[in-house]
Design a protein that fits this description.
346 residues; alpha/beta; TIM Barrel; 2 domains; 9-stranded parallel β-sheet; 16 helices; 9 strands; globular
Amino acid sequence: MQDGRGSQPALGCGVLEWFAKGRFPVCLAPMAGVTDFIFREICKDLGADVMVTEFVSAEGILQADARTRKYTEFSETQRPVGVQLFGADGHRMGEAARKIVDWKQPDFIDINFGCPVNKVVARNGGSSLLKDCPLLAAVANGVVRAVGGQVPVTAKMRIGWDSESINAVEVARTLEDCGVRVIAVHGRTRSQGYGGEANWEVIDAVARAVAVPVIGNGDIASGAEVARRRRETAVAGVMIGRAAMGNPWVFREAKEFMECGGTPVPVLLAERWDLVLRHCRLAVASARYGNERQTLTSMRTRLMAYCKGFPGAKELRQKLCHVVAVGEIEDLAAFSIGQAGESGHA
């Protein structure tokens, strides 16, 4: 399937096993403020194969910042799971990666070369490194040298800084030469942000240019789309991000579609509300975001994403903007399900 430049490296345990013997992992993309401990647990239950934490700052890890360290937490049931780091100093990145491995024993360390957010780019992290391949290589080498003998190092990148500097193949070859074992490619440039369409031709070219597994990311929102990318490109797996925010059932759908084909069975409205309430209750119980009021206030955007396509979604979103207690959401769920009647569909 790949035209790689060398023999495929021997596969180890954990994340690398997902690329052995024709397996095709469907992964949850790391998203700041979204893929926290609880949401990863939910997506794992619904069929996500490989998980990555929200990104963490290497400097925050080295300063033993408690808030930063919180983002590295995961459960045994979430494995294989990696911790994603960002930074622009190879030595410091390596030190931080070693600390994380000692603390948490993740299945892999992932390097962020894709984040387009200004506050990250301004610190010469994330996708800014796509403009400086020598510095990018120094960062990758620093992490691989620090932990490569203990856990695999992976990387997530975009296809380039802008439309005039699409250099994904060059960057991927550099990462492979540095010892990075898996590369995830988001098919947009940094300047695109999340607008426009993902360029799967470039993702495919990257997958054919290197011998390590390449994961494709961008505009995947259904099981049919997962199957299409598996069929039409050389990627070894896919990664789903924004589509999972409102529809984490997409992982289950992808598995069912690849195994059986055909039209997936729609998720009933009651099941959707059950998951919304489960997420809220787990978040409140964890006290990660403060008390009940603080937790639900912080979750309002997430709740509105879940309710996209629900009956009366416009009015529902307006009400969700003001919820401060789980009981209020329970009442909205009961009313919504009752209004849907016998069809039970969102």
